[in-house]
Design brief:
The protein is α/β, with parallel strands linked by helices and 400 residues long. Among the domains are: 208 residues, FAD/NAD(P)-binding domain, CATH 3.50.50; 46 residues, no CATH class. The protein is built from 14 helices and 16 strands. The longest helix has 31 residues. The N and C termini lie far apart (47 Å). The protein binds flavin-adenine dinucleotide. The site of flavin-adenine dinucleotide has 33 residues, from helix 1, strand 3 and helix 10. This is FAD-binding monooxygenase.
Length: 400
Amino acid sequence: MEIACVGGGPASLYFSILMKRQDPSHDIAVYERNPAGSTYGWGVTYWAGLLEKLGEGDPESALAVAENSVRWSDGVAHVGDRTTVHHGDEGFGIGRRRMLDLLAERATSLGVRVEFEHEIAADRLPDADLVIAGDGVNSALRERHADHFGTDIKLGRNTYIWLGTTKIFDSFTFSFVETGHGWIWCYGYGFSEDHSTCVVECSPETWTGLGLDRTSEADGLALLEKLFADLLDGHGLIGRAQVDGSAQWLSFRTLTNRTWHRGNLVLLGDAAHTTHYSIGAGTTLALEDAISLAGALREHPELECALTQYERARRSALLPVQSAARHSAQWYENLPRYIRLPPAQMFALLGQRHSPLLPYIPPQLYYRIDRAAGQLEPLRRFKRWLGPRVARTVQARSRR
Ligand SMILES: Cc1cc2nc3c(=O)[nH]c(=O)nc-3n(C[C@H](O)[C@H](O)[C@H](O)COP(=O)(O)OP(=O)(O)OC[C@H]3O[C@@H](n4cnc5c(N)ncnc54)[C@H](O)[C@@H]3O)c2cc1C
């Protein structure tokens, strides 16, 4: 089979690895418009379940990713001058660039042609049996047929910027700072021995109130360094300015598609769906798409059948994650509802931000129910049963 993968992100690269392992006679090319070793973003998080899945598909990739990741087991929240620590599940972080280098190396060693600085025009697709649109959230391949794919994009209300820092966080760290224009916060996590990620977020009112919409990147970073001085401990923030020197502040785009394939063209990863970064799942989902598509192609020799099967399986697997991501994003958009709770309660509800019930129950009552449910299994089961039903009812009403 001749396969052309457009975009050299985790989705395309891992898919090419799986397909080569399935059948070395496949002729596979991955086209990436950027030069090797240059990519957007800093570190990405994932959880142990991903390593198991990668290990089943390709033990070499799993080992390389594990060996190049950092780990943490605690979560820390700073709200003003109060600090709460939670000992939780083990989390992992890896540099996005490092991960892509590892996957590209592995793909090349299996015989995939990885062509950097090779942009594919949406109206001139490579002549192949299967074309993968792994070209990310702004996929030109998808946009060319947006009507067919039924693309829907919802813009988040808050504004964010994805930054790096030389401060090493050994826990997953949240820091909420109150300014004269409202709260601003960041999520910090390590991803290598010498760098961490810092995603800074705030409401649009705080963003414009602080003048972050008007300053150059350099002045904006200086202001953020001042606001998060306690957290950063003298370390600087590192950005990636646009050509005009402005900072890359964005509103998150939650993207869905009615269908994921058209003839021999199929959407993979962010081109097909996005989930808010506050649940740290986009890369994992992109890799799971690759596993699912490779599996469907193995099971179904007929292409249309395989693509339909892939789409069906992934859409249903994504539903709970998309719900969690939507509620997590809304939690931050409704931050004033939670931020002044006693620290232990605020942190507990931060951990529960994916819950479909939380927006509809007074936070302190929710906290008490959650504590009780932790001790009583029947109540926990009732809460799990009720959550999705409340969310579906409210969504159906808001659509009417
Ligand atoms: C602030 C932020 C924080 C995040 N944190 C996490 C996290 O902690 N954990 C996590 O799992 N996920 C995280 N994500 C999400 C994650 O980055 C994406 O979900 C993931 O990269 C999707 O992979 P992909 O392969 O589908 O697309 P991408 O990684 O976007 O790759 C697409 C590639 O296609 C290339 N391309 C585009 N058009 C063309 C073309 N025409 N020709 C050739 N090449 C092309 C691009 O240059 C790019 O390299 C975060 C996202 C954001 C915005």
